[in-house]
Amino acid sequence: MAESITLARPYAKAAFEVAVADKTLTEWSDMLGTLASVSLDKKVSGLLSNPSLTADKQAAALLELCGDEVSDKGQQFVRLLAENRRLGLLPQISGLFDSLKAAQEKSVDVEMSTAFPLSDAVVEQLSAALQKRLERQVKLNTTVDEKLIGGVVIRAGDTVIDNSVRGKLNKLAESLSS
Length: 178
Fold this sequence. Notes:
62% helix, Peroxidase, domain 1, four-stranded mixed beta sheet, single chain
C-alpha cells in the first residue's frame, strides 16, 4: 500500500490551487489545521475509520464537530475525502498544504536550540543572517536545550546547522574511532 504522504499529496495540491485562486491561503491553512486537529482525536479517528458508516455520515459528523470553521468549499473538500475514504489523511494534507503555502510566501519556519537564553538583539541578528542565507522570510522559534553544553543547533526544513559543543564533540569522537 502507498504511504499516506503519497496519498495526501494530490489532495493538498488541489486544496492549495483552490486557495491560491480564491486568495484564501491563510483561511484554508487554518481550516485544514482545525480539521486535522479534530480528526486526530481518538474518538473522532475511530468514527472516521468506521467502515459501517457511509461516507456522507462520516463527513457530516466531522463537519458538525468543526462548525463554522469550515467554508463551503472546505465542506466540499471534506465530502470528497470522505467519498474516497481519505479523511484519515487530514493531518498529512494539512502539513503538505502548509509547506506549499510557505514556499509560495517564500517563508520558512526555523527552530533554533541554544544552550542558554539569547538576548533579543542576538536573536534579531541571527534571524537576519538566516534570512539572507536562506533567501526567505524567517519565522524563528528559539528553545533552550541545556544538553548542548554551548553553541546552537538550527533546523530549517531539511537543513540542519549544528554548531553546538555537543555536536562538535560527537564529530571528534567519530573521527577518533574511525
